[in-house]
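In the previous chapter we treated chains in isolation. Here, by contrast, the input contains two separate entities that must be folded as one system, with a combined length of 547 residues.
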Amino acid sequence: MFKKLNNIGDCGIVCDFGDEVNRAVNANVIKLFYHIKDEISKGNLHGVLNYTPSYNKLIINFDLSKINSSKIIDFLKSVDFSKISFSKKNKKLIIPICYDFEMDLENMCKTLKMSKEEIISIHLNTDFFVYMVGFIPGHPFMGDLDPKLFLNRLKTPRVKIPPGSIGVVEKFCNIYPYESPGGWNIIGRTPTQLFDKQNETNPCLLSPGDTVKFKSISKEEFEKLANE
Amino acid sequence: MNNYFFNVLRSGINTTFQDKGRFHLQHLGVTPGGCMDFKSFSIANALVGNSLDEGVLEFAYQGPLLKLEKGEIKIAITGNVYFQIVKSNGEILDGECNRTYFLREGDQIDILATKQSAYGYMAIEGGFEIKSFFKSVSILSRAQIGPNEGKKIKINEMIFFKRPSKNKKNYSAKVLKNVKNVIRVLEGPQFDYFSKESQKDFFSKEYKISNLTDRMGMRLEGLIIKNIKNTNIRSEGITKGAIQVPADGQPIVLLTDYPTIGGYPKIANVTSVDYDLLIQKTPGEKIFFSPIKLHEAEQLYKEHLNSISEIIKNIKEIN
């Protein structure tokens, strides 16, 4: 299943699943992620601190005073992917979006030679898959958008993007959980909170492997939900 | 909440609560964080008789000025720090690092500056009264996670502690300064993205630490490192101490508050044994990188941890 297993520093291992980015490759990354999570909840793999899936890799960070690279590689080589079941753990979510808060739709219409309505309708009809969460807390990288909506990053990234902003680049869609700089094309905003630090057991709305569909809401509904 | 507290008369530049960090959350975008200098952090807690996991105050460059408003408490300051204790009767004592002091009500502790280093620590006996998030009291100010609403300590805030000191004896530890400027590293996962010449340069030429350095990363200035493959890679998970090289060819070392995912190729990774040494370097200082093998790095780290345990074991009572 792995193309390569390498150390990254003296307290990290990279599990490389190959160069392709698609759901099948990512599904295996996420399978391994849940498998490690299960092992840790059973009290195994003592010393493993983090296990971070990305599109085609999983990086394991550990405490070198408790475990080392060779023990982790032994564990990884013993993993039988055909015996890991994880599909039931994934959530299907509907996230509201208000397209009135767009910042780039007009330019997108020009570049893509499409109307606003067409772009919105493609976005609303896409079943998004959460490839990974990260960079900052709660920030999801989702795909896959129709190739018709393929766009590059903005030439000059914005210094400030309001929290909840939803952006697209290439075949991916993201949601900014915090106010932050960013270069994605902003098509709308959600009132849904992606990271809740009051919730100690489950602070993050989305996890790798979840699926998301967007639901269009008006400005009034946005304000109502934002104040809840 | 009890009544024992310090008042913050000056906050310092970057004063936060830190412990060993927050784990099992990187897949949700939450970086582990925690103390920058694990050795100084551990010795601070050991000196005041705490568990080595207890949260402490971490400061950088200029530290805070704290007035003990209520209670009596034993403290220890570690790192390489210039500080004074201003007694309530006006008497001023020059402070020594790596030993404890017993503070009485009205005393002030004035942490003026770190000397030729970046980070220092203040631990108090019994620990601070702070709320943890995911089993850690480390403040991650970028995402506003942790105690004090995840924010840096500000002027006029009150810092509460769990209980007054019980043990009035003072203790000291013997800590030798590490003045080396060679940082040992392992080759990174994209080492072969860089030209043979740049690989050689990276391991032989000096790199200067720039002003753009904080808890998240350290930008270096030196010979341009030439990428011969691709200046972007598919975003992947990050490890503490990863040295990434963006398109401009100037390396960035990712430090304790690193972004959880990154998309630049990594030429090398700082070894665990030399991490504390690296993060104490200040802007303008020059360093060299030297490659070692994984098994050496593992052995050296074991010896490093043993040396910390020895320091802690040899903590002695003083008068």
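The domain at 4-88 of chain A is CATH 3.30.1360.40 (Gyrase A; domain 2). The helical segments of chain A are 23-41, 69-77, 105-112, 116-124, 219-226. Compare these points with the single-chain example from earlier in the chapter.
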